[in-house]
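Predict the structure of ATP-binding protein.
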Amino acid sequence: MALVVAQEVPTSSSMAVPHGPAGVGEARHRMREQLRRSGMSESVVDDAVLILSELLSNACRHGRPLGRADVGDGDIRAAWRLDKRGGLTVEVTDGGGPTRPVPATPSVTARGGRGLNIISALAQDWGVRDGAAGEVTVWVVVTEGHRRDDFATRVTGPGFEFLDTYDDPYES
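Done. Here is the predicted structure for ATP-binding protein.
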């Protein structure tokens, strides 16, 4: 007789992430493990982890820590929850900043500025919600099979091949 132990998988999770790059990896790891245990498809898990990483990076770069005016100290909040229809909502909340989160139009040679375009290509929907004391929450809804067909074009822009960004620089 085999004994099967059911593993409790939370339908939602929230965690404080240090304001800075140190906590981003831990948050991605925790999300990946929880979503895999929930039975979510690998493609949605991969998209959600990329989205979380982009949101956290943007919050650290452009937002203040929660409850604090000085950048570099304190936390931001990452949260995700599954709904009954299988959709996943990812949220990152920071203490606000001097600008609003909007997709950029970076030049082909720009090193950044594509994060919200990547999110737009992967997500069913996303938006920004203002909270108490100047808090800003960027939320994203991810569902199975929603990735847009023109993902590579939208992320990289004209004249730039998506897969070229993954070329091995040491390959001849």
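Helices lie at 24-37, 42-62, 115-122, 151-156.
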